[in-house]
């Protein structure tokens, strides 16, 4: 069994708190690691290390900082297979899906290589008599990221790559469920030339999170996870004067118009609803067919596809998806299926009895499909985060739009249609942060920003893209005047530029 460490000051450090949790291999149910939970003192040690290292890194010119990320991208590509295998074994997603997880993080690393261009300030010569005016973007100092289990490569890189490119030092608190890849990423950053102390990784639970939120040397915190925890971190971090961005839960709808290509739509729903066992904040969890004819035709095509899903171990290249991350999460998702039945939804496909020969102790759940789901049901209101798709029928376009707009979450949404007017109207009026038109999972590319609305997001700046530069820097404006030898005497009125 592997003993996981922290990564502080450029080296692996054993946990000293005396508190540990087991790390599981979801496809077999075996305990494969022992993960230390950091104490407040251990978190403080990492922060002090980062605080001491950060000034020299901030003083390093932006192009040299970017070269470290260039080398890091090369190393990620070199070790892609090894990283994907480790990620799949710890998380449960298939190796192919794990590669996608790493690739989407790598793309933000590539974007961050160009951050020197985005750090350029503004300059106005002769803004007043002999006065020049200019602005600077400067790093915040030490910043932190608290990241979830479902994307253990992508989301850490979404946070630490732009933060480090901007000249900050970074404290990463990854999920204790799959810490292997975040630690490997820290190793690769050191190999790429990052000075020790600029990226530190501490494993932990609420004690470590609170230590980060309360520490005066942490200037900003980013989080991705459930909405209740996002709200807690946002509230506590802001109360301590920190800049905070928190991304929470989701209930992503796909509206299917009567003119949609149903074969294309079903392909999209199968992948977006059941990929990664539904453990994605951008998964489609509610299908909204418009009109009874559309709904009936969708159900007819969807049932056999859900029944034919291939669930297998993470190492099975032919599997559509693998196990859920833990036994506790498997039990939680199963309880939602039980709840849906008791609430009166029609369970068209029941995956609760699924068992995989040779992997009976793994955390597997077959695909589940509900019809007749209504907005008053908990399975509609709450994020299930598993391979469960609900069909909520709508009589017309306005009803479908209202379903999307009235839900408390506003992370992602999609519409499938051949009609440009419908798509354009939907994109303009839907109260959701990320919209797909005939695209089921509308995660923007790295040079745009990622973020939801309503109770899917807390804070006014999104992840990656230009918002990442804004989040990880502060603006300083300098008004400069060099004496010309003319004495003007004291002035007691507000300065003006004329």
Structural write-up:
The protein folds into two domains: 2-248 and 456-478, 3-Layer(aba) Sandwich (Aldehyde Dehydrogenase, Chain A, domain 1), CATH 3.40.605; 252-437, 3-Layer(aba) Sandwich (Aldehyde Dehydrogenase, Chain A, domain 2), CATH 3.40.309.10. It has 16 helices and 23 strands. It has helices at residues 40-59, 62-78, 80-91, 95-113, 115-118, 154-165, 180-191, 206-214, 227-239, 262-274, 292-307, 327-343, 378-381, 397-406, 420-429, 466-471, and strands at 2-3, 6-8, 11-13, 20-25, 30-36, 123-128, 131-139, 142-146, 169-173, 199-201, 218-224, 243-247, 252-256, 284-289, 346-349, 368-371, 388-391, 409-410, 412-416, 434-437, 453-454, 457-458, 473-481. Strands 15-16-17-14-13-19-20 form a seven-stranded mixed sheet, sandwiched between helices. Strands 10-9-8-11-12-22 form a six-stranded mixed sheet, with helices on both faces. A three-stranded mixed sheet has the order 1-5-4, covered by helices on one side. Helix 7 (180-191) links the parallel strand 9 and strand 10. The longest helix is centred in the first third of the chain and has 20 residues, at 40-59. It is globular. The N and C termini lie far apart (73 Å). The model has no long low-confidence stretch (mean pLDDT 96).
| Helix percent band | 25-40%
The biggest beta sheet reads:
7 strands, mixed
CATH architecture assignment of the largest domain: 3-Layer(aba) Sandwich
Reported by name, the CATH topology of the largest domain is: Aldehyde Dehydrogenase, Chain A, domain 1
Q: Which ranges are low-confidence, i.e. pLDDT below 50, for 5 or more consecutive residues?
A: none
């Amino acid at each position: 069994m592997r003993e996981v460490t922290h990564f502080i000051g450029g080296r692996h450090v054993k946990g000293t708190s005396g508190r540990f949790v087991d790390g599981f291999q979801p496809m077999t149910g075996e305990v494969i690691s022992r993960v230390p939970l950091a104490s407040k003192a251990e978190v403080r040690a990492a922060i002090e290390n980062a605080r001491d290292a950060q000034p020299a890194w901030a003083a390093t010119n932006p192009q040299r900082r970017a070269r470290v990320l260039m080398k890091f991208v090369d190393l990620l590509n070199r070790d892609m297979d090894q990283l994907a295998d480790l990620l799949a074994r710890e998380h449960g997603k298939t190796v192919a899906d794990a590669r996608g997880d790493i690739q989407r993080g790598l793309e933000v690393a590539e974007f961050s290589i160009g951050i020197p261009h985005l750090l350029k300030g503004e300059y106005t010569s002769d803004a007043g008599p002999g006065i020049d005016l200019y602005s600077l973007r400067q790093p915040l100092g030490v910043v932190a990221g608290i990241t979830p289990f479902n994307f253990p490569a992508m989301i850490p890189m979404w946070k630490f790559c732009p933060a480090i490119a901007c000249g900050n030092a970074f404290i990463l608190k990854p999920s204790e469920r799959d810490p292997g890849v975040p630690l490997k990423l820290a190793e690769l950053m050191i190999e790429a030339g990052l000075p020790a102390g600029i990226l530190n990784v501490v494993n932990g639970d609420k004690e470590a999170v609170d230590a980060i939120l309360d520490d005066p040397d942490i200037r900003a915190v980013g989080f991705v996870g459930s909405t209740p925890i996002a709200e807690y971190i946002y509230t506590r971090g802001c109360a301590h004067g920190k800049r905070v961005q928190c991304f929470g839960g989701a209930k992503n709808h796909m509206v299917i118009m009567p003119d949609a290509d149903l074969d294309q739509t079903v392909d999209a729903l199968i992948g977006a609803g059941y990929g990664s066992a539904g453990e994605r904040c951008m998964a489609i969890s509610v299908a909204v067919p418009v009109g009874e004819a559309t709904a009936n035709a969708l159900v007819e095509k969807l049932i056999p596809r859900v029944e034919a899903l291939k669930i297998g171990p993470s190492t099975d290249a032919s599997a559509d998806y693998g196990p859920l991350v833990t036994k506790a999460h498997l039990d939680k998702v199963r309880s939602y299926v039980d709840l849906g039945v008791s609430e009166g939804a029609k369970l068209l496909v029941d995956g609760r009895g699924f068992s995989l020969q040779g992997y009976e102790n793994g955390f597997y759940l077959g695909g589940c499909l509900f019809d007749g789901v209504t907005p008053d049901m908990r399975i509609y209101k709450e994020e299930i985060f598993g391979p469960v798709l609900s069909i909520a029928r709508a009589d017309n376009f306005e009803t479908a739009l209202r379903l999307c707009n009235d839900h408390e979450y506003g992370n992602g949404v999609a519409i499938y249609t051949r009609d440009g007017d419908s798509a354009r109207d939907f994109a303009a009026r839907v109260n959701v942060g990320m919209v797909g038109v005939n695209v089921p999972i509308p995660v923007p590319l790295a040079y745009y920003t990622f973020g939801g609305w309503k109770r899917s997001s807390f804070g006014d700046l999104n992840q990656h893209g230009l918002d990442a530069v804004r989040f990880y820097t502060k603006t300083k404006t300098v008004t400069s005047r060099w004496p010309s030898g003319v004495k003007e005497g004291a002035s007691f009125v507000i300065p003006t530029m004329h």
